[in-house]
Design goal:
Elements (H helix, E strand, L loop, with lengths): L2 H23 L8 H6 L8 E4 L5 H7 L5 E5 L2 H13 L4 E3 L13 E5 L12 E7 L7 H7 E12 L30 E9 L3 E8 L3 E2 L2 E2 L1
Parallel strand pairs: 1-2, 1-5, 2-4, 3-4, 5-6
Antiparallel strand pairs: 6-8, 7-8, 9-10
Helix pairs in contact: 1-4
Length: about 220
Amino acid sequence: MAANDSSRGSSVKASGWDARHLAAAQRSVVEPASFVLELLPLLPRGPALDLACGTGRHTLLLAARQQPVTAVDNSSAGLNILEQRALVFGLKTNRLPNSLALAPSHEGIALIEADLERVVLPVAAYALILCVQYLQRSLFGQIGRALAPGGMLLFETYTLAQLEFPGGPKNSEHLLGHGELRTAFPSLRLLFYRELRAGKGIASLIAQRPVETSGRLS
């Protein structure tokens, strides 16, 4: 695909998500994923990255405990809604220029509109990375490298089993294969993994970047 075709494709995707986020904002606020909510007390409190943050259900959860969060999405409407909700809760935000090269926030919520198919993540920058209901395999390597030593990754999204259930994505390119997520981050230490197919098909992973000791990985 030519570069200009790729840009057009990204714009179409962004406008589609803009419409979804605006429609969803007219309904009740979506609750954080139970996978994230239940683990919250155990999660590292350093700089966090919320990939494909949407309207920020997880960004707001982390920021409410005074954790600095970089919230990234390709939908300006989603980020606008997140910014408005943060204001209601008295949380500090900083709307940064559109950028492909990210940097960690060290205070409040940094809002960045970016094409996630082209974004560049900083190395060893985040204590915590969340990626929920978003699948972009080309980011897997970058995600592993973007974690600081001891940093944790929480990743949860749909599997091919979702084709058996209503809702969710139906394009197989946007669905994980059986066991795929378990082996997606070989540089990280696997802490928890599960696949569910009860009402929905979903895979959940918690992994951690090993801490370097004496020039070697522990």
